Amino acid sequence: MNQPKINLSPPVSDDIRKTTCYMCACRCGINVHLKSGRVTYIEGNRDHPINKGVLCAKGAAGIMQVTAPSRLRAPLRRVGPRGSGAFEEISWDEALALAVSWMKPLRETAPEKLAFFTGRDQSQSFTGWWAQQFGTPNYAAHGGFCSVNMAAGGIYTIGGAFWEFGQPDWEYTKLFIMFGVAEDHDSNPIKIGLGRLKGRGARVIGVNPIRTGYNAVADDWYGITPGTDGLLILSLIHCLLVAGKIDTDYLARWTNAGLLVNETDGPEKGLFVKNAESQPFVIDRATGAPAPWDGKGVVPDLGATWQGHRTVFQHMAERYHSAEYAPEAVAERCGIPAARIHALAAEIADVAFNQAIRLEQPWVDFRGDAHDHMPGRPVSFHAMRGISAHANGFQTARALHLLQIVLGTVEVPGGYRLKPPYPKPVEAHPTPHFVTVPGQPLSGPHLGYVRGPEHLALKEDGTPARIDKAFTWENPFSAHGLMQMVIPNAHAGDPYRIDTLFLYMANMAWNSSMNTSAVMAMLTDKDAAGEYVIPRIIYSDAYASEMVAYADLILPDTTYLERHDCISMLDRPISEPGAAGDAIRWPVVEPDRDVRGFQSVLLDLGVRLGLPGMTNADGTAKFADYADYIVNHQRRPGVGPLMGFRGDGTGAGRGAPNPDQLDRYIANGGFFQAHVPEAAAYYKPWNAGYQDWAVKTGFYEAPQPYLFSIYSEPMRKFQLAAEGHGWIQPPDHLRAQVKAAMDPLPVWQGLPAVEGYPVHALTQRPMAMYHSWGSQNAWLRQIHGRNYLYVPTKIWVEQGFGDGDWARVTSPAGEIVVPVAHMAALNENTVWTWNAIGKRKGAWALDDAAPEATKGFLLNHLISELLPERGDGQRWSNADPVTGQAAWFDLKVRIERCAAPVEAQPAHPPIPRVVPQGNTR
Amino acid sequence: MTTLPVQTEKKLGLVIDLDTCVGCHACVTACKGWNDQGYGAPLSDQNPYGADPSGTFLNRVHSYAVQPVEGPAQTINFPRSCLHCDDAPCVTVCPTGASYKRVEDGIVLVNEDACMGCGLCAWACPYGAREMDADAGVMKKCTLCVDRIYNDELPEEDREPACVRTCPTGARHFGDLGDPDSAVSQLVAARGGYDLMPELRTKPTNKYLPPRKKDARQEASLLAPLLDIKATGFAGWLDRVLGKI
């Protein structure tokens, strides 16, 4: 043998800079290796709470994103017709002066004519604050077309939600059940958790029409019919109730099950019975007499009836006890045999009640009652867009929380745990602010949680105050706005016309819009006078997305390795159940182009517009740039965008601004954590120790324990209005919808059958892609360069499909012709494809002949933002009537085998390039 | 022809858990990223933004549909890379001695200085684990991150292959499969780890752990009703569940 001698210890890099990934929404910690100033390798940061060293396919491929030829290079001004691609490069001074010349007159006369909407924005507490200072009511991020049902359904029920608000207790859970969790969701945290469960033999169940990704490794799979999760969940609750497998102690102590529901006909009917101090009360089990809900030693009697008023528990039990929720009654609609539903309920009950656990951890609850241990029921759930992107998604999310609540598994060992600053009840959130005064800021944040009709964003004449009609009778709880309606409403002049549409990182001319072809037409449509119906469009993005071509002014952003950001406790932090956490991005390399971080540009614009909060009295800038804002802005005294190293560097949560704060974050690996005390780690909404810690850490100013809302009084208030009570009344055409949608107990509403369209059609993102960003990445597009319509065996055989075939797919809204592939592990009435692999020719610096542009396709062309017309002159949105969440997954189609076209249809003509086509990497 | 060592001191390799792999491709790009700047020539890409992009990857993940005799269809995700075989046909076929198996740890490597890019080894490998780099004209393959696992420049905890370090589900394990007491050997024994295509007698070092049995629960209900609802109605149920009778 003559083995060559090789260097086993080559130097790896000159420098490692620790920052935060932005290849999706997870915000993992990354070690960026550099040699001679160039990024050479990216790996996960072992110390980071989100990813603990691991990194997904996207994260490691970030190195290709920093050098992607699709990066925008300089500000651009449109010089030809909109969409023609005729742009000229201009300086930043020219660009900002132009933007100010459009915005300043609006602020002085009609601030609502600026609509500022952001997409995959991770600085929402800042962009929202900017819009507030401008004074327009028209601000939101992308939650309306993403997953507001998940957020709002959870906040209104448990004061937290699935998604990033919490996570299963990976350490103790024995049975983990996922509803509608797509492949890409919560990327590394859920993969790490699944790995831990697998490692110790815990059981995993997937409820999903599609068996890939996390559902592929699940020990059991329920291939449910899309849109029926809520019905399945209520049937599980039925089974548990009938068998008496519910945690009545948990229900009595920690939920509103013991509150009394007013049975007297009239304007109070269905609200909680209140005492003289307007406080709801309970009947104490010990005394049989009324007692304060939060009184020391009080244990509410769930079976009480007081002056004819029964408890929430009895209303709830009566509803779900009904035979209409028996497995035999729901099986066919859910596509799951009744015996399987019984078996799932039995398995859940067995783990929750026969395998209960306890932690020997004493704690004191908000009533002042001491407990010597923490009981746990080791069943946990997780859910995402599969249940929320339906018109019944809000109530389905509520139903799943109710299932957890009756089992007693939320905020207990082995169950579902919330992450600081959650738990946080509806009452701790702001209400929407929307009243405009020319030249003045809004009086508070745009987005919030409505408690009753008095909080709706309606003008004095009852018309919507916001361009997206958020917080109206059409969708009262639209806590994230309705970004998907902004362009259609602005085009329709409904409820009014706007002047300037200002978008950030939102690909509304392609995969982020419903009815994409029509939206592109709206963006270029002109009125009788030859003016654009949407007069001005400003867009900021780092890359040459499809949206760029439709802008009048382009403000080029940096890539994520060239910028400052804060992953803030004020919006979407990186907490764990046992620790509050936040993080930064910082420029680990400098841009080689004439681009600027969008947040710094917003501050510059703000000063030029003289916006309060960012402008000194003498008109100079209060903050040099976004980094300066991150350190020195205070939202409340002592509370700023970052919680770590405040004051003299030892402050956590509260403290004066510290000029060294960013350096301290960098030295600490780019993040900061404040750990929850051990006695406060569970039962957080009711744990006095947690409440005190949360106040100390700055989440709120006073302890605010609360009861989980099995029964939602805010929802009942809307029903009362629909029934004619109160002085704020819905328009007559919406009364029936409000009454049905705002049921105060979770309810399942089937989606109307559409004659001739029998097949459900879904999308999900692959784990190695994030929205449209992935295709410009030289490595990721080699993994997912094509998408197919995956067809279940039944339809595959019926249609006589074979390998390489194509299908015509038709919905009431449109038609596409696309390549198909067979997939057996799929609900038999469902087809699906990867989301956002399809690209428009000319975008993302790809070749016009790229497979993404010739064979790739979107389902968006089949999905209208409006429901079919009903002949009543109304524009009914294709959305959840509670929150306005875009009902992407309500899509029903017809599918037929057809001859292979040259390209997937519709084939849009190329959009003109704003950057040259990429060549080598 | 190149000869194989009669015996190696260790048998370093991977154990890949097919019960846990969700098919996320994290190992694919971590491998690409490390080896693009690591041992030997970079892993090039051709037409990376073009109509027919292709490139060199030392590790790829495939997803397969499996239809059991009974029960619903399943999806199995299958990562594929060099198995560092004891009887590696890619080594014995090499006309220049460029392909070799290390005596000290059994890693199969290509000495790129001696590789003439004839491609015989890729033809000989039954697992499709070798890829010719189109730019460099040399054969590339998994090195088991030989430039990481002994690298004094790296913290001790990072001296493992990039794919193992990055795997979010912990489905990839690295160790000495020649030592029956090693953690990986124990895992293989406990979970019934197996060789890929053993009938070819390549004696792979890497092992795969099979998916656990799925969808196995019986469908009969284990939940008895609390009492005969029909006889006592909702009020009777309420009394019983609240412990009053």
Written account of the structure:
The complex is a heterodimer of chains A (921) and B (245). Chain A is an alpha/beta fold. Among the domains of chain A are: 162-421, Dimethylsulfoxide Reductase, domain 2 (3-Layer(aba) Sandwich), CATH 3.40.228.10; 712-744, no CATH class; 759-898, Barwin-like endoglucanases. In chain A, 25% of the residues lie in helices and 16% in strands. Chain A contains 25 helices and 34 strands. In chain A, the strands form ten sheets. Chain A has a seven-stranded mixed β-sheet with strand order 5-4-25-24-23-6-7, covered by helices on one side. A six-stranded mixed β-sheet of chain A has the order 30-32-31-34-29-33. In chain A, β15 (305-306) and β16 (309-311) form a beta hairpin. The radius of gyration of chain A is 27 Å and the shape is globular. With 245 residues, chain B is an alpha+beta fold. Chain B has a single domain (12-209), classed as Alpha-Beta Plaits, CATH 3.30.70.20. In chain B, 21% of the residues lie in helices and 17% in strands. A three-stranded mixed β-sheet of chain B has the order 10-1-11. A two-stranded antiparallel sheet of chain B has the order 2-3. A two-stranded antiparallel sheet of chain B has the order 4-5. The interface between A and B is large, with 105 and 89 residues.
